[in-house]
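ok so i was messing around last nite and threw this chain in just to see what happens. nothing serious, just curious
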Amino acid sequence: MTRYLLLRVLGVIPTLLGITILVFGITYLIPGDPALIIAGTDASPEVIDQLRRRWGLDQPVWVRYGIWFGNILQGNLGESYFSRQTVVQLVGNALPVTLELAILSLLVAVVIAVPAGILSAVKVGSWFDVAAAAVSFVGLSIPGFWLGIMLIYVFGVYFQILPAGGFTPLERGLVANLQSMILPAIALGTFASTQLMRYLRASLLDVLNADYIRTARAKGVREWAVLVRHAVRNALIPFTTVLGVQMGYLLGGTVIIESVFALPGMGRLVLTAILNRDYQVATGIILLIAAAFVLINLVVDLLYPVLDPRVRLARPEG
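result:
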């Protein structure tokens, strides 16, 4: 088992290496010259060339990638061209906001998806199942930013019971903090809940038709016990896989929601960096989000035996 775990962890390294190449390449293709933006349109060519040399923007792309990758191995993600703050400092300020938003959004998604998915599977073909399918289809079709704007209008402008935007740190009070985060969490978590509900429903339907479920019912086991002890537990593996993937998507999907609700998180930070051609900040944050996505899925994969004892980390052949 130890060997398997080690191989799984080592298998992530080529993926992370490929991510660095992809992230740097995409950022390099962003049009615009950071030196020209920093110096201003009225700056002389000499000043612009000096800035290019200072930041290494005059080097070939492979040289720039080698320098950037070498710095990453030393824990240095670079610094902003404009604020002169390091990417680590900027991420340290923005990460708590994004992490809180992602966790609250996932909580909203689970609270909606789990009861709806279980009831849809148990009462398949009923009015609730049909209604849940229709709501799920609508939820998948509604863009997150549109739902966010509607929530702002209804609860922030019309009823004025929740803030229309901005962020209140936790240090200023738990209630005020949750009030500033509940609308963006609903806007981001609603889309995720529709997919989670569909996967949980499909997984439960497969389990409920299994032979051991029919055997348990034939032995006189109560229906709630069959559902909780056997069906739901065995349906958790594919559901947990999707849950881990959704957590990664939520971390990366905060860009638009944070902009709509004016939250000072990583999504808004990377969007500002891209618009300003602040390559160091953009590449650093995108790399961290992509790496988090990969690591979350690795953790979910390693949690399978905990969720279902029948799943064993088999030793690879050869």
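not much to say yet. The chain has a mean pLDDT of 82.
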